[in-house]
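Backbones bend. Our protein:
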Amino acid sequence: MRIINPATEEEKLIEETPLSDLPAIVDRARRVQGDWGDRSVPERVRVIARLAELLETQRELLADCITEDLGKPTKLSLLEIDYTLTHLKLFCQHAESWLAPKEVEGGFVQYDPLGVVAVISPWNGPLIVPIIAIVPALLAGNAVVFKPSENTLRTGIELGKLLEALDDIPSGLVQTVVGGKEHGRDLVAQNVDMVSFTGSGQAGKDIMEKCSKNLARVLLELGGLDAAIVLKDADIPAAAQKLVRNNCANTGQICCAVKRVYVEKDAYEEFVKAAVEESKQVTYGDPTGEVDMGPLVAKFQLDKVQATVDDAREAGAKFHTGGEQPTGTGYFFPSTIVTNVNHDMKIMTDEPFGPLLPIYPIENWEEAVQLANDTRYGLTGSVWTSDEKVGEKVMGKLEVGVASLNAHGVGPIGTPFGGAKESGIGRVKSKEGMRAYTNIKMMRL
């Protein structure tokens, strides 16, 4: 299949896995899973922990793959590797306690492997996102069939090689499927016990429908339209700076990045001015250089962002920065600050997945909460205020999986991450995330 470097638009061909091979791949995984599942958790940890050394050894290669696949600036690709290593070590450190039998009245609860887990990962975190699914699934005793995104295949293939190269890991316990959306659909249709998927809401619904036929389990981390609520007593310059940078991280291609900002009217003009000044400082260009943002991942993503901008402009939105893709090679788009928006515009109702930040004035936090919750999504949200009690009250009313005070996005390392409403089912990056890959069995004595 054809892959395209989003910064240079250079093309390469990568050999696909034949679709006809998928049944045999899953059967092979099932045959070897029993031996792996019978091993003790400490034995599994000993094998999987070696992955950290391999990732360190291939650090430069993996960073190059992420940058070439996704367009992420090299310095940020290296940070993704560091972030991945932190989670990998956390999982290995806590697996024994998280998966240990738990005494309860009348017996104990134990955590058994499910069998074969299909991991279908996205392009926006081509190393960290598959790791937070694959490693817990393996530590819990399962076999894994890994299907990386067709937009970040180099990274996925290299990760698959490292997993398969682990000492003492059964041959066939981890296998990589290389292909496009059809490969993902066919993999879900195989005899798997669970599908762990990160991606679009519609794809998540399709997977859930297919899995319902055999009642295979699902863990779905889907999209978001995250809102930040900024109250007038907040540190306005600091809030504006942090929210603009959060919105631009990974060129806006993060599910839990802020995508809407509601600001109390008394602080609105100050916030907009500060956000505009910060947006002007966000650099973009060749991701191998010293820039804040690289390109969007692909032409389809650039078209989606541009369509969102065009819709807002036609409806009367005001663009203070950005709003136009530059001429030349690559799928670049600048940081864009937008005002005069409303909830009839796509920019406020649909996830654009780009560096677009609409800012909307509100009378009070009650109005902001109503508007923030006026969406089918519910991934993360934030409140910015100097009054901690008010902040906690507002956070409690947000219909999200993670709510933050004077910060935005995922919680601290080891805390559960996931969404409410159509932003997903289940939790990852935590004890709850690892146990999701098990059958929780009550053993009555």
